[in-house]
Amino acid sequence: MLGRVLSATAVILLASLAGCISKGDEAPEDDAQTRTSQNVLDPNASTEAPDGRGQISAFQETNRTESGMGAMHHTHDYWEGKERLDDVAWIDSGLIPIPFLPCKKPGGGCTVGDTMPGSDTYPALTTIADYDLAPPPEMGMIYEGTKYVELTMKEYSGPFVAPGNPAGKVFFDYLAANDEAGAFRTGGELKLNEPFRIEIEPTMADMPHQAKSLWIFRIYSNSEMVWFEFNITISLVKGYDVVNWPPHPDLYADNPTRTVFEGPVHLESKGTIDSYAFGTDAGWVSPQRVISWNTDRVEVTVSGVQFSGQVPIEPDGFVLEYHNASDPFLLGNGAPGARLMDPGSDGSTYTFVIDLTKDRGDAYDTPYAQYSRWGFRLVPYWGDGMTESGCVDEMFWPGILFGCQWYPWSMDYTMTIKATGRPAAPEPTTA
Questions:
Q1: Does the CA dihedral 425-338-205-283 come out positive or negative?
Q2: Is the pLDDT of residue 107 over 80?
């Protein structure tokens, strides 16, 4: 099976530049050891990321590379000779206690009857949310070479204004670029105007050619806070070398269509209770193979759909939900991505096409990634309102309507994802 199912979780984003012939990218001396022959990777060259984070997925599919500078080993140095970069990104927001018992299990797998409050969750009524950061040119990224990431809470207001008040504590956890979805690392307590420094490994930094960073910051308080507003800035301190990366893989040099995922999928949603109580999400299919440069379209086919649940009527149909590599699920900040319908479906097989010909690059995985950060899932839908085909809401609690889309349900199906694209255009050999 070409892929795996990953639960939807936040993965924070900070961005880099899309092309290699640009400011911050440097080619070494033009000699036989740094070039490929006829746009084919040297058989003795490593197919692993040079910073130690593992195999480059694209080179498990092809040994073809781009031409010109894209066929050469090269560096990506955005430090401009500096050892420190201040305020490369920031988070300016406010929080309230929804969900009520935020899940902290890896993958967000909390559900009623199988979750221990306080052990599997943050304390009840914790104010909490996940944040990604804006892409360039507005913000930067956690650049290669970073050894320390500094967070500073520069503004704070809430019911307990004095930062020394123990009832007014603010904390953060974080997901680094190489972390599995949902496997948040513990950060610490943020105090007003006191930098909190995280020491990271080279593999935790963002990779070259990411459209946005894969870092996610989870900001939260203790349960006494009720609500608060804040401004947090992020600065970087260099401590590692910027290393030589291999040539750019050319995924479509030999074949215009690639199968990036094929296999069975099991999906569950526990409905309103899990969603509002824990912030639990139903999960996503994330391909093992990347959806990267020069991809023009993604076609998703779903067959053998089996649906079961406690819903009193059958779904009106099924839709594809998807998000790209720059648009992750964020706890407390809503679901990402878009929806597609297949009006021509026979009810047995569904086909959806995602057009990327007008994409500016922010949807793509970096060509150096170990696996894709895209997410896909087929989900049921019901009509709205008191109509014959709609799902009639019923009273769940005085004043609270419980719609059919919020009942627990599960699905099984087979999904195939194919990416179609074009070979890389020739590049010049010098910047």
A1: negative
A2: no
